[in-house]
Amino acid sequence: MNKNNFDAPTAENPKWTAGRIRAAVPLKDAIAAVKRKRGGQRKDITKRAVSLRLDPDVLEYFQRDGRGWQTRINAELKRVADVRRSATSERPRRGRRRAE
To answer: Residues 68-79, buried b or exposed e (16+ Cβ, 10 A)?
Structure first.
């Protein structure tokens, strides 16, 4: 006689009751539900993919803390851009002279 009893209910393979049978869904529907849950709702794309060449030491600095290094680079660039924007908005603008 085979020692393994594959028909015996376990935590991973519980006994099929009438309630479980009523609650069962076709496999294709279960797979579709899992795929829909992945990634949450799609957000509008607010960032652009770019190729950027960085010095090795700069890249190592941001990557040493692990995941999220691109987000950290973006945050630093945004901070610098905001500082420069506010600095230029406080200065009076000068018009360019035309070459005569």
So the answer is: eeeeebeeeeee
User: Given this model, what pLDDT does residue 4 score?
Assistant: 67
What distance separates the 2 farthest-apart alpha carbons in the chain?
105
Q: Which of 79, 95, 97, 99 minimizes the C-alpha distance to 87?
A: 79
d(CA 42, CA 35): 13
pLDDT in tens, 42-98: 667 688 889 999 999 999 999 999 999 999 999 999 999 999 999 887 766 666 655
Q: Could you tell me the CA-to-CA distances from 13 to 8, 20, 42, 44, 58 in Å, in that order?
A: 8, 12, 35, 41, 52
